[in-house]
Amino acid sequence: MADLNALDATALLQALDGRRISSVELLEASIARNRKLKATINAVVAEDLEPARQRAREIDERRAQGETTAALGLLAGLPMTIKDCFDVAGMPASAGVKALLDRSAGDAVVVGRARTEGAVIWGKTNTPVMAGDWQSYNPLYGTTNNPWDVERTPGGSSGGSAAALATGITALEIGSDIGGSLRVPASFCGVYAHKPTYGLVSQRGHVPPAPGVAADRDLNVVGPMARSARDLRLLLSILAGGTVAAKAAPMALAGVRIGLWLDEPAFVLDAEIRTVIEAFATDLVTDGVVVEPIPSPVDGHALYDAYTALLMPLIAADMPPAQQASMRALRPLARLALGMGRPLWALQVVNATISHAEWLAANEVRARMGRTMRSLFERFEVIIAPATPVAPFPHDHRPLTRRKLVCSDGRKIPYDVMLRWPALATVCGLPATAIPVGLTGEGLPVGVQVIGPRGGDSKTLAVAEAIEARLGGFRAPEMG
What we know:
By secondary structure, this protein is α+β, with helices and mostly antiparallel strands. The protein has helices at residues 9-17, 23-41, 49-64, 69-72, 109-116, 159-166, 183-189, 229-239, 271-286, 300-317, 321-338, 344-352, 356-376, 423-427, 457-471, and strands at 44-47, 79-83, 120-125, 137-138, 142-143, 172-177, 192-195, 221-226, 257-260, 290-293, 382-386, 404-406, 412-414, 432-439, 445-451.
């Protein structure tokens, strides 16, 4: 067989079904790969191996007895890891918080669906504390490194997931996204991810919010991560309970109308990222794709203000009561500071303590922007936009308000610009498929997000699959 570490899940499932490899052999290969890279990458942070080995043996035995995929499941015998924000029986979600370790929990809904289809779940991948950063580190499990350059972050909050995919430790992952947490790590690690339409996939069993909360969290989504676009579709069909087809006929790129969104005065886009995306767009035109550069679909300042007003109360709800009280006490000073330069700390405090009336105003902005996007998708099948404003950046674990990002020209920009390009799809609840499209001059991955109309998950996935076929698919970092 070809190198297992580079194959996607579909190819591995075909090998399993054809009995060219057993589930036990594939599981042991995944475990060995993780052990080889543990000190270098630190993607997998918890394991439950004996139940996984027993599961793999059972599936091998049933397959040997002639049971078909229809009986065994779409993922029969495939080893998987899961982001440590999802409860897994025997491995409850810690989300990087020690107090969450010693509790019992059953499978999150999406984990249960993958297990029902035959997945062999054996480990958990790293995430920042309460999924709250574009870097993946926490006091429990330490730092996950980017396999393209270990001095840099793999992104977050699904950074351990993306690093495990890029290094061949796993072929499928389940992640989540409220601030780019699927799209950023996919872009930083050169893999694929899909942010579904809001509400398409259950969040039950995801932390945050606190374990046991019944209501789905606003803005947050749960979605697949993989080494190919076809694998995204396969896993999404399972996570969404069969409402999305597991396979689709190939889409012809010629004639597809794409809006290319690279300019927004309120957002930053580093020149090296723009260069890679523009070259990618030029290649699409040579294939007959109708690529039209578009101005920002909505006002960027209004989008960001609405986004942070909707997002920060959710983050504040997970804070200790004393910290919430402190932020309420700081609100008058923070409002004053907003009129004198909009420092990040003041924006966070004010938005974390908004009234219900202020939340309703932000929600109205969201509704109006959703209407604007529906009109735009009458002109274009999809919109392509940057997934991140910069390439993978060096680890920086200082307090958020002290961090700066450095562009390729040396310019320093605020850390919270990472939130801006993901904002449109998140605020409007739109599907967005993240795909790799090239490398910077330093050899770091660059990704884009293929954004579609609400409910258009199959459309963005079809475009992603067609582009993947054009570009040649997943490219592994040189890890050995």
